[in-house]
Every structure is written in C-alpha cells, then in structure tokens.
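FAQ: What does the model actually see?

It sees only this:
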Amino acid sequence: MGRWWSDMNGTVRGFIVILAIAAIVFVLNLEGTLVSLSLILQIVFFLAIAVVLYMFWRDRMRHEIATWSDRSNRVFYGSALLIIADFAAYFWPGRNTVGLDALAFILTLILAGYAMWRVWRAERTYGY
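And it is asked to produce this:
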C-alpha cells in the first residue's frame, strides 16, 4: 500500500483524502460540528489579524506616529478603528456577506486604508 500511495499523482491523492474526510463527516453526521468549527476559526482568524497588527504598531509605528500633528493622529487612528469595526461587522456570525454588504465592506476598507496612507505620506514628506 505504501508504494502504491507514494507513486500516485499528488492531485489524485489529495482528492482521495478530501473524499475520505467528506465521507466520515457524512457517515457520522458531523455537519453541526463543522459549522461550529468554522465559526471558531473565523473568530480566531480575526483575533490573529488583530494581534499581528498590534505587534506591528507597537514595535514600529508608535514612536513615529507620536511625532505627528494631532489632526494626523486622529485621522490615522480613526481610520484604523473604522477598519477594525468594518471587519467585525463583516465577519459577525449569521450575517449575510454577499451583495451590497460585501460592496460596503470593500469600499469602507479601501477608503479607510487610503486615508491612512494619505496621512502617513503627508507626514513622511518633508516639504521637498
């Protein structure tokens, strides 16, 4: 079995593994468990993104941003909070995330990111 399995095409082997997992889920009636696991993974993914962004801010950006003007600080941090709220609203469990909701999510993300980029660029340009 070992040589037959290792000589098999990698794509076919992957599909066999997926079919085996799907058969186990179907036979043992684990659909509810998969939904719960999916919800937990969405929350963990959201928290992981937040932790990485916090670490980046703490290590690199905090000291630089402290030298900016008050208006630039408010715009930059306000945009960051808007992006966090946008992600939280989009990935809220049980929400419909297609159509206009998805468009609003993308547009809010783009506009807030653009505001952050403009403030960063304005503060990094020294009038040359």
